Structures are given as C-alpha cells and as structure tokens.
Amino acid sequence: MGKNINEIIEQAVNTGRLTKTDVVTLLSSSGEDAAALFAAADGVRKSQMGDEVHLRGLIEFSNYCERNCTYCGLRSSHKDLARYRMEEEEILAVAAAAVPLGYRTVVLQSGEDSYYDAQTVASIVHRLKKELGLVITLSLGERNRDEYKLWKDAGADRYLLKHETADADLYAALHPDMTWERRRQSLLTLRELGYQVGSGCMVGLPGQTLNALAEDLLFLQALDVEMAGIGPFVPNPHTPLAKAEGGTVEMTLKMIAVARLLLPKAHLPATTALGSIDKQGRQKALTGGANVVMPNITPNRYRRMYEIYPNKICLDDNPAHCRNCIGGIIASLGRHVADGPGHSPKDCFSGLAG
After folding, report:
1. What is the CATH number of the domain that holds 49?
2. Is residue 117 part of a domain?
3. Quick check: is 155 in a domain?
4. Rounded CA gap, 188 and 198, in Å?
5. Is 69 annotated as a binding residue?
6. Mind telling me which residue stretches traverse the membrane in this protein (predicted)?
7. Residue 72 annotated as binding site
8. Is 314 annotated as a binding residue?
9. 346 lies in a domain?
C-alpha cells in the first residue's frame, strides 16, 4: 500500500526528500489534500524564511531576442513587435529612482541580445553596485563562461536562468537550435562561479506530463537553487502555440508548494504571470509557500513591448504606485516587506554584503 497524502507531506516537512512518485501524488491532490499541501508549504516558509516578503525591482531593458522559442512573444520571428533597447544611463536612472522606494535588489532582464556585449553589461553592473549599492540579479539567457565570470567579478550577485522544462524532448521541441544539455551546463557553470542561482519552469506546457513536472522540481532540488521561479504557461497569439491551452492556477500553486517542501531555504516568487491569469494569484502563492515579489520598474513606454505573454498586469502603473500597491497586498496577509538585501539564507551565502 502506498503512502497517503499526509504521510508524504510529513516526510517532506521532516526530511525535504521525496521520490518522483511522491511528488506526482502531491501534484495530483485536490480538495482537502491540496489544502493540506498549501498549509504545510506555508508553515515551512514561515519557519525557514520568516514573514518577510522580498521585493526585486525588474528592469526589462531590451526586448530584442536572437532566439525563436515557440512560446515567447519576444521570439526573433515576431516581426511585427516594436523593439526597444535601453542605454546604460537610462538603466542607471531607472534603478536610482527605485532606491528611495525601498528596493535593494534589481533584476536586469532582456531577450538574448548580443548588442549588449560583455563589457557593456559589466559596466552597468559595476556602476549599479558602486553608485547605488544595489544587489544585482542578471537574467540575460545563455552566455559563455568568460562572460558570466566577468559579470560576477564586476559585482553581479545572482543569475536567473530558467530551465523551462527538464524534459529534454519537450525542451528541444520548444527551443529551436537550443539543447537541454547546454541549458543544464550553463546552470552548473553559474553555480561553479559562485552566483546565487535562480532557475525555474513553466507549468502547463503542451505535452507536459505530471512526471515531467515532478522532474522539474527534483532538478531544482538537485541543483540546490537559491531561487525557483515557477509560473503558468500563458499562450501568446503571436507564437506557434497561440491556440494551446494555458497552465492552470491550481497546478502552478501546487508546484510552488511542493517546491517549498523540497527547497525550504530557497526564495520562491509569486510570479506576475500567475497574477495575470488570476487577480488573487500572487496572494494565493504568498500563502502557499512563496516569499518574493518582482514588481516591474521598467519605464511605462516600454512595458507593452516586453510581451512574452499577453494581458500582463500592472502595465500602466508607475513604480511608486506599484510599490504602494504591493506593500498593501503584503500587509493584508500579515506579512511585511523585507528591508535587507534578501540574500540566500543558506550558510554559504550568509556572509555576503549588500
């Protein structure tokens, strides 16, 4: 006889270890069983990460992309998309305006855009660190080891590179001219160079199975990521997957909850994508294991052009309004905005300055 849900949850809480079969069982839960999963995840979040919610100010500084991923609205073959690039001084100005709002971390994100060569990115990172004292997360896709090292030496603290799916065949179908093995190796290189590593996956991709989702979670655990970004797949009408069904709120929340049980000391964001398909999506994630929110501080004139998926929330909010809004949401849950840099609580990162 197999273990019941409560036994699996208890094992996860006590040991942080589950078999793939156990993970699939948790992801298959519903009703009272799912409620027990969410409650357990929230309890682990509280005991391991406290009641702080960490804010990461997101700057989407270029929507050019040299890749052609089948799910993404920034794909290179989307010729009707108006493209933009922010120059160094504008990026610095946006980040500087975020500091008085209480942001300690900025996330520099773009499509895979080689217009920003390694030295340009290094200069931006160095100035953000030296002039503003910010903690810096980069999310620029796959680059080579020398570039990653240069940016780490310039002051970058974290790197977010989502693996999207740990199913190699599905990965190949979604990413023309890319391979799962290269993505995995890139993440291992980031780990070796001393970055706080973020990865993550989409939930509800066409052809994705519960076994594949379980593999995603076990891969994140094996990599021992400092952050795991898990959000729903949202079909974009300008992609080959335009008519596919999207990921569900319920499955995304269960993935976040199981991630918290497997990764008790990882930062888990309540994603904008989840908030875009459910008005209460971020609140639900924050009460089911999540402890990070990434408000968009990109200038409004660019936001609609960074359309990885459609109907994104907060496109017209200015950073101050957005900061107040998210602060209110966090307070309504009995939580508070963190005032520290939000580094990983794992021992190997506990002494970092920032």
Report:
1. 3.20.20.70
2. yes
3. yes
4. 11
5. yes
6. none
7. yes
8. no
9. no
